[in-house]
Amino acid sequence: MQITHSHVLLDACCILNFCASGEFLAILKSIPAEVVLTKVVQDELKTLQRLKEEDNEGAIQFEEAIKQGLLMVVDFAAEEDELFVNYAAILGDDGESATCAIAVYRKWAIATDDKRAIPFFKQTAPDLQILSTLDIIKHWSESAGVDSSKLSDILNAIRFKARYLPGTGHSLRSWWEQAMKN
């Protein structure tokens, strides 16, 4: 996985998947760029913090990532507000809209699995690098030398705890299916 930008903005769906894996901090450390989320996405993830009282390792790691500076929180600059409003009107979701408004304006990459946002931004912002949960999990597993049994457990945790299922057209769908079987 090559990241062509200095920063990667994570959307809520990717953060939920990484938290479900139980390996959130290790995954963040493997990303070869500054990793960021928007204040809007942080607010969306308040449900993770409520789960903290239910012995949720993902919620604990999420807070720890911010404390350690592995995950930075950013808010809109005045110039990005208009982009956010336009994207929110089209996409109908504040999290993806905020993530993409900041990424487009600052020329950062994004990580999202949103099936509506991806084709929209591929068309309207062709220079925007779009990564997915699978791009980052595959990169992390290969760079960390994760064995096939552990990888299968992690992908199953993401599948069932976060209810993630890659689309049939995802370029890493066959990798996902094969790795889940091990």
Q: For the terminal residues, how far apart are their CA atoms?
A: 23 Å
Average of pLDDT: 89
Q: Give the fraction of residues assigned to helices.
A: 55-70%
The number of strands is: 5
Beta-strand content: 5-15%
Which class of secondary structure composition applies to the elements? alpha/beta
Strand neighbour order, sheet with most strands: 3-2-1-4-5
Describe the global form: globular
How many whole angstroms does the radius of gyration measure? Answer: 16 Å
Fold and architecture overview:
By secondary structure, the chain is of the alpha/beta class. 59% of the residues lie in helices and 9% in strands. The chain has helices at 12-21, 24-30, 39-44, 46-51, 57-68, 81-91, 94-106, 117-124, 133-144, 148-161, 173-181, and strands at residues 7-10, 34-38, 72-74, 109-111, 130-131. Helix 8 (117-124) links the parallel strand 4 (109-111) and strand 5 (130-131). The mean pLDDT is 89.
Give the key terms.
182 residues; alpha/beta; 5-stranded parallel beta sheet; 11 helices; 9% strand; globular
Summarize the SSE layout with pairings.
Elements: E1 7-10, H1 12-21, H2 24-30, E2 34-38, H3 39-44, H4 46-51, H5 57-68, E3 72-74, H6 81-91, H7 94-106, E4 109-111, H8 117-124, E5 130-131, H9 133-144, H10 148-161, H11 173-181
Parallel strand pairs: 1-2, 1-4, 2-3, 4-5
Helix pairs in contact: 1-5, 1-10, 6-7, 10-11
